[in-house]
Design brief:
de novo design (two linked rop proteins); rod-shaped; mainly alpha
Length: about 180
């Protein structure tokens, strides 16, 4: 009778460990998904801000319509992109927005425009928020991936339907300096 009691206690302990591991995996996955959604919120704010920025700049830079059209096009691509394509589209849009601020250096009237300055400040704040959200997402993904890949999580993650998630990566073009040519 005592051996069956010990076996029952061992089974209960294993059950608690499995429940705890499952709950940890769920918590980590949900945290990573929430972090990704927070990136979407900041990106939506940026998408909403871009038309105002473009319209403000149009009045001052009649010769730069190609740059502004490119930003509008990249905005549309970023809004409709999914998955890995979404990250690449966001990176391209970020690079184009940097070129707009570099472009503004050549237009003193634009640099002095209060609406442009306010939009630039708001967009700069959003870009910083997007970067923080990306770092938080990547940290959440790292924690989930570690749990999914390390023992004993790796043994049970597949059984529970958990898998690694992809990091939000920056492409090489975004890490380079902006070059504006006239």
């Amino acid at each position: 009778m005592s051996s069956s009691f010990i076996f029952l206690i061992i089974l209960v302990l294993i059950g608690f460990v499995l429940i705890g591991l499952y709950n940890r995996l769920v918590k980590l996955r949900n945290g990573a998904e929430e972090a990704f959604k927070s990136i979407d919120i900041f990106l939506k704010q940026r998408y909403d801000l871009i038309p105002n920025l473009v319209n403000t700049i149009k009045g001052y830079t009649q010769y730069e319509s190609g740059t502004l059209e490119k930003i509008v096009q990249l905005r549309s691509q970023a809004m409709s992109a999914q998955g890995t394509d979404g990250g690449a589209a966001e990176n391209a849009l970020s690079g184009a927005l940097k070129s707009v601020f570099a472009l503004a250096e050549n237009y003193p009237d634009l640099k002095a425009n209060q609406e442009f300055l306010q939009l630039q400040e708001t967009l700069t704040g959003l870009e910083e928020s997007i970067q923080r959200a990306r770092r938080y997402y990547n940290a959440s993904v790292r924690d989930l991936n570690n749990t999914v890949e390390m023992f004993p999580g790796n043994v049970f993650a597949g059984m529970f339907g958990f898998s690694k998630m992809d990091y939000f990566e920056v492409d090489e073009a975004e890490t380079q300096n902006v070059k504006v040519q006239f």
